[in-house]
Design goal:
The chain is mostly beta strands and about 450 residues long. It contains 4 helices and 17 strands.
Length: about 450
């Protein structure tokens, strides 16, 4: 009974919070009568009966993040960095986060929703910048935010066919690509669309191990204004002949040759057709009592073309000053490959467990689109793009270190350290460096 009350209370709090900031315009999209009748019919089902298939869970997080970013000798974030109004761009940032998830699952169909609340620490933010009004410099400025809500995942699914040791299921809705497709340096982008998957167990071995084949595909919307869509597919075989090796081959097509919303055909920002080959090795027996997994992958963009190191016009630099080196000079290389290599030691399930992840990443300038970089990246506080001025989220090499430790069965601490440097400083005319350290406490419920 206590569990049912908690589910009801969580649902009530969530609905009250989401409706608090709703604009009246959001209610203009009313449902058709047939949909209303169908929805209302579900009210006759007792809540106790629904609770048999409904789970409400999530986590509360407190996060401290430190980042510094420099372009050559110029600080962009951290020590000495200031914006155009002279306000200091700090390296530290603290946030309070809540992930609230609801999962309704029956034998052959399911629905899932994930709301994320992420708000910066500080008292209420009245205004961001000083102005010339009287006594504005004497205001009690705050950095806090209390209204950031994100619909992180929302999808429905069902099993459409089931055979002996095999099945096909489909899903429709929203989730990030990395939930279904494996990569450490790409597949970060949000994917709203249709997903299909085929799973087949092809061999069973001792100690419950098996070999599996998995085929996945998804079509997702990228820009509805231009009728742009992305397409991705992945084939995988796990534990090949009980060897511990997993092999995955994926391909994603971002390219659209028709005009974008600005009327440009085959725009540079969408010129990505990425193939990735991934190999994992999982030790069957524990090493010093812990699981050990080695992994690595290579990525290649087959649609890349040679472009300039830095695209500038005369208006982009002051009169009388020479342009930067290599400006408007054609790069002899396409800069369209990436790779990573690493290992994970340990697994977190209960109090006292830990997991350590270490990997090295190499991502060239045209290997992964700016919107899809999942790796270390470059910080990119200016929100620049490769297609605009050759300074985006790619063109980096760096190291990622992460330690997750379970303080209790529900409370854990995640510590990350990573840094990146430019692969080719001629691209975007700057030797970029980025350093990051993060500590996050996570309480699951």
């Amino acid at each position: 009974m206590k569990k049912i009350f908690n589910i009801y209370l969580s649902s009530l709090v969530l609905s009250t919070t989401l409706l608090a900031d709703c604009d009246d315009k959001l209610f203009s999209n009313t449902d058709f009568p047939l949909i209303d009748l169908f929805t209302n019919s579900k009210r006759s089902i007792p809540f106790i009966e629904k609770a048999k298939n409904l789970r409400v869970f999530g986590d509360v997080r407190a996060d401290w993040l430190w980042r510094e970013e420099r372009e050559g000798d110029t600080p962009l974030r951290g020590r000495g960095a200031r914006d155009r109004d002279g306000v200091h761009i700090v390296a530290d940032q603290m946030e309070a986060k809540v992930n609230l998830m609801m999962d309704y699952k029956c034998e052959d169909y399911w629905g899932f929703a994930n709301f994320e609340f992420a708000n910066v620490f500080g008292i209420e933010r009245i205004q961001d910048k000083c102005n010339e009004s009287e006594n504005s410099s004497q205001l009690l400025y705050g950095s806090g935010i209390s209204n950031v809500i994100c619909l992180k995942r929302a999808y429905m699914g069902m099993i459409v066919w089931r055979g002996e040791n095999k099945k096909i299921d489909i899903e429709l809705g929203r989730k990030a690509l990395y939930y279904n497709f494996d990569s450490r340096i790409q597949y970060k982008a949000r994917a709203d669309g249709f997903f299909a998957r085929y799973n087949h167990i092809i061999g069973e071995y001792e100690k419950g191990r098996s070999s599996d084949i998995s085929l996945k595909t998804m079509i997702f919307s990228t820009d509805q204004i231009s009728y742009y869509y992305g397409l991705i597919g992945q084939g995988a075989i796990f534990n090949i002949l009980d060897s511990g090796f997993d092999f995955k081959l994926s391909f994603i097509n971002w390219r659209n040759r028709k005009p974008n919303r600005c009327g440009v055909e085959d725009p540079l920002g969408w010129r990505f057709c990425n193939g990735q080959m991934t190999l994992d090795y999982n030790f069957h027996e524990p090493i010093m009592g812990k699981k050990l997994n080695f992994y690595g992958a290579v990525v290649h963009n087959f649609c890349a073309k040679r472009v300039t190191f830095l695209e500038l016009s005369e208006a982009d630099f002051p009169e009388g000053e020479p342009p930067p080196d290599h400006a408007n000079e054609l790069n002899p290389d396409k800069e369209n490959s990436a790779w990573y290599l690493g290992f994970i030691y340990g697994e977190v399930k209960k109090e006292g467990d830990f997991s350590f992840d270490c990997n090295y990443q190499w991502v060239e300038a045209q290997a992964v689109p700016d919107c899809d970089i999942r790796g270390i990246g470059r910080g990119n506080i200016k929100k620049e793009s490769f297609s605009g001025n050759r300074r985006g989220n790619a063109n980096f090499k760096g190291l990622h270190l992460e330690l997750l430790y379970a303080i209790t069965d529900g409370l854990s601490v995640d510590v990350k350290f990573e840094f990146s440097r430019s692969i080719d400083s001629r691209i975007g005319a700057g030797n970029h460096r980025y350093d990051k350290f993060e500590v996050e406490f996570i309480q699951r419920f």
